[in-house]
Amino acid sequence: MAQSKSVSAISDILLEEHQKTGNSEEDNNTNPETNRQEAYTVLSEKEKVFSIFIASLVTLLSPVSSDIYYPSLDLLSKDLHVSKTQMSLTITAFMVAQAVAPLLTASVSDLKGRRPVFASCLTIYVIVSVALALQSSFPALITLRCLQSLGSSGVSGISSATTADVITRAERGKYLVYTSLGFTIGPAIGPIIGGILVQYLGWRSIFWFLAILGGIILVLILGFLQETCRVIVGDGSVPPPRWNRPALALVRPKYRGSPNRQSLVTFQRRPGVFDSVRLAATKQFGFLILFSTFIMCGWNVILSCIPFLFESKYNFNALQVGLAFIPFAVGGLTARWTCGVWTDRNFKRHGRLAGVEIARNQQSRQMLLKIPLEKARIEIILPMAFLWFVWMIAYSWLMQYDVHVSVPLVVMFFLGNATAGTSNVLSMLIIDLHAHQPATAMAALNIVRYGGSAGAVAATLPLINAIGIGWTGTIFACMGLISSPTLWVVYTRGHDWRRSKENTEQE
């Protein structure tokens, strides 16, 4: 009954949103009463998909930069004369930088636009990747890897922000395949490319490859990607400054008619560097981020130990290690159908139960205040999280014993699906709840989960050496299971917290 009521509330909100302007993006400073019948964005479907796709290419850099490195760990430890445990510290350092980077870029992106941050971070990334290809010492490696992570991870959450700029909450599930493109494909192609390059060209070639890849994406950003930040362009009808437009007139946004400046998002207080930290400390975000962190820890524990486990147990070479990542990544890609489609359907189901019509490309602040977004998303997250727990333990104990290599590879497919599905919908909910500053919301998530993952990866090899991969995986899976009641707290209390906060801000 409670669930049905929540669903009804969601539907009511969606209908009101359809009747109101789709331009306010639930910002706490826009006027929801104006232009009620206007679309959320003036961009066509092709323009929306194109913008999301290019922005998602940027998210490819962080996972590829991380995962392309794994097949080279053994060779690097020999060439630089350091232990495997020391080499695992380079992974930890990379993840620490992943946690810090969004602090420096999120608020700037929400205030000044997506394109300037994309361009700045990618320029740094390309320069540092070249330096990595030329260095020959462990201190230089670990230092430059941190800087490379700053360049790639500083923009990792801005792709999701781009999606929030142009897509309503009722439709975000079906765009999951585009938004999460980098995070799902990266773990697949990164190790494969890394394995091929290391096997035939040596470890330096992986950094030359990353420099070229970063350069190509930088050109695409400067030449093709239009600004979507609602502070700058509103619903897309407000032209950005000329310096913040695509270089090629062929793809330059067409600004037809008069600009709808009422769709511009404004802030009562200027966004700051530590907004993400303050957001992560709030009770609703804190609960969601805590659970997401344990899922991410388990994800990175599995990925980081694949090279060592498959080399030692199955005598895989660098190329074969890279290929071993494919099932996990392909499973992640299929989350678009197992989670993305059902996320939108569940949202619409709530709408029908409430007697509310859900219209495409329309949403308003007042509608969203009525919808228990928390329930609509967590109803998808909980079953996927349970599957993650089951597959995490199954994979860990299969790797503990000498089973045929095909068995853990098959389980990795299902583990990848459950991991990506849980993580993606959690990220979607976090952006839903703070959509007027989506990059800041993602930064709050990344600060904690990447910081936690850094510690988890640092502890992985010592734990495996001490108690084995079976118990190591079980420990991380149980940490996720133990933290799952936080989702129930948000499920039952989250909507009330959100409405109470809104009422307080209006007083």
Overall mean pLDDT? 80
Stretches where pLDDT is under 50 for at least 5 consecutive residues are 1-37
Fold-level CATH name of the largest domain: Growth Hormone, Chain: A
Which overall shape is indicated by the principal axes computed on the Cα atoms? globular
What topology does this entry show?
Layout: H1 2-19, H2 45-59, H3 61-67, H4 73-79, H5 84-112, H6 114-134, H7 138-153, H8 158-166, H9 176-179, H10 181-201, H11 204-224, H12 230-233, H13 275-280, H14 283-314, H15 318-323, H16 326-333, H17 335-353, H18 365-370, H19 373-400, H20 406-432, H21 438-483, H22 485-506
Helix pairs in contact: 1-17, 2-8, 2-10, 2-11, 3-7, 3-10, 4-5, 5-6, 5-7, 5-21, 6-7, 6-11, 10-16, 14-19, 14-20, 14-21, 14-22, 16-20, 17-19, 17-20, 19-20, 19-21, 19-22, 20-21
Word description of this protein:
- The protein is mainly α.
- The protein folds into two domains: 41-270, MFS general substrate transporter like domains (Growth Hormone, Chain: A), CATH 1.20.1250.20; 272-506, Growth Hormone, Chain: A (Up-down Bundle).
- The chain is 73% helix and 0% strand.
- The chain has 22 helices and no strands.
- The chain has helices at 2-19, 45-59, 61-67, 73-79, 84-112, 114-134, 138-153, 158-166, 176-179, 181-201, 204-224, 230-233, 275-280, 283-314, 318-323, 326-333, 335-353, 365-370, 373-400, 406-432, 438-483, 485-506.
- α5 (84-112) packs parallel to α7.
- The chain is globular, with a radius of gyration of 22 Å.
- The relative contact order is 0.18.
- Mean pLDDT is 80; it is low at 1-37.
- GO terms for molecular function: citrate transmembrane transporter activity.
- It is found in: Membrane.
